[in-house]
Amino acid sequence: MDKVISGGKHLLFTCIHFFLSVVGIIALGAAPALFNGLSLNITHYYLTFGNLVQKLLEPSSLTYSYYKVVRPLFPEILIRYKESLFIFSSSFIVSLLLAIVIVYSLTRINPRVVNRIKQCIVYLEALPDILIIMTLQLSVVWLFKKTGILIVEVAAAGDQKIRALPIICLSIPTTIMFTKILLLRIEEEYEKPYVSLANSKGLSHFTVFFKHVLRNVLLRFFFFTKTNIWLMLSNLYIIEYFFNSIGLFIFVKDYNSIETFTVALLLIYVPIFIYFKVFSLFTSHLLKEVV
């Protein structure tokens, strides 16, 4: 009975949290209507807020302007959203797999070498994303001029989709970030008694790492990965801009309006909110055991 009441309270709190978050996003989206030059226009803001809520409840009424031609916002924004989601999710998976391989390799080598590599990671982390993007673009162009072979597209034109180089560019800083976090957490995990017990039983380094240590570390990694996701999204905006990609962020920049901005923010926020709530629901008891 207590579990049912506790579950009901948690569900109610989650619904209230979600509702207030959506209201906050809509209020933020309507914020431009609050200002009239240097003065505040509260009445216009409330009218815009109400009008925006009404349009969101009727998605077919949402529009954007393209060279003074008014077009429906759906499904165009979903097409752009799908493109950004593909680059983001591909980079996330590639970066996580690479980081796991790198960290596993680091656990096999001399600790002095690992300390030097940690210092290199700090320096690499400080590299600007723009420098990485431009270096890769210029390298591809240089190779094309030398060999006549264009291995990947360096920029999109019109509605052309470009994915390979944006995924690589987003994966590089993300891999560095994931490697740093995973290495720190795995070093902490290796100091726990169960690892010594597993080693004393003669389990191989591979088995201890992937079957016990990594599982515990990944649970906490995914649970506390909210900051990483927001950092990746900020990098994704820069990448879409430099590659002229047809992603969501460039769509919002090119067709900036209260409706476009609010819908885009909701498309980003809602899946992240659901991900963390569902993950927390199914792993909270495991996390208590791990921590």
TrEMBL record:
<feature type="transmembrane region" description="Helical">
    <location>
        <begin position="263"/>
        <end position="282"/>
    </location>
</feature>
<keyword id="KW-1003">Cell membrane</keyword>
<comment type="similarity">
    <text>Belongs to the binding-protein-dependent transport system permease family.</text>
</comment>
<dbReference type="Pfam" id="PF00528">
    <property type="entry name" value="BPD_transp_1"/>
</dbReference>
<feature type="domain" description="ABC transmembrane type-1">
    <location>
        <begin position="81"/>
        <end position="279"/>
    </location>
</feature>
<feature type="transmembrane region" description="Helical">
    <location>
        <begin position="85"/>
        <end position="106"/>
    </location>
</feature>
<feature type="transmembrane region" description="Helical">
    <location>
        <begin position="164"/>
        <end position="183"/>
    </location>
</feature>
<keyword id="KW-0812">Transmembrane</keyword>
<dbReference type="InterPro" id="IPR000515">
    <property type="entry name" value="MetI-like"/>
</dbReference>
<protein>
    <submittedName>
        <fullName>Peptide/nickel transport system permease protein</fullName>
    </submittedName>
</protein>
<feature type="transmembrane region" description="Helical">
    <location>
        <begin position="229"/>
        <end position="251"/>
    </location>
</feature>
<keyword id="KW-1133">Transmembrane helix</keyword>
<dbReference type="InterPro" id="IPR035906">
    <property type="entry name" value="MetI-like_sf"/>
</dbReference>
<keyword id="KW-0472">Membrane</keyword>
<feature type="transmembrane region" description="Helical">
    <location>
        <begin position="126"/>
        <end position="144"/>
    </location>
</feature>
<keyword id="KW-0813">Transport</keyword>
<feature type="transmembrane region" description="Helical">
    <location>
        <begin position="12"/>
        <end position="35"/>
    </location>
</feature>
